[in-house]
Known about the structure:
By secondary structure, the chain is mostly helical. Helices cover 70% and strands 0% of the residues.
Amino acid sequence: ERDPQTFKAEAAAEEDRLRQRLVRAKKMLPRVQIDRSVLRRVAELCLQLRIDGHRGELTIARATRALAAFEGRSRVGAGDVKRVALMSLRHRLRRDPLERIDSGIRIEQALETLFSGGETGARRIATISH
C-alpha cells in the first residue's frame, strides 16, 4: 500500500516467469499421459471413499495431468495424485454427522493405503472393499 509502483515492478519478473511456465504447460498438456494403473487406483480411491459418480475421478485425472504439465513432466505419477486428491475429493465426501474422523484424514489414509504400496496396495483395497 505504501509504494504500489515499486511492488508492481518487483513482482513483474516473477509474474512473467509464471506466465511463461503456464504457457509451456498449456502447450504440453495434450502430451501428458496417465497410466491405467494410476487410473485404476484413483477409481479404487473414490470407491473406497464412497464418492458418488465419476466426477471425483475425472477431477483427479485432469488435475494430475495439469500438475505434471506445469512441472514440465509428460507422465503422471502417484505423487501427483497424493498432491491433488484432498482438494479434489474433500467436498465430495458424504457427511456423517456422527463421524469423528476429519474427512481430510479419511482421504489421506486411503491415499496412503492405495498409493504407497504400489499395485499390491491397490489389489488389497479392492479385495477388502468388495
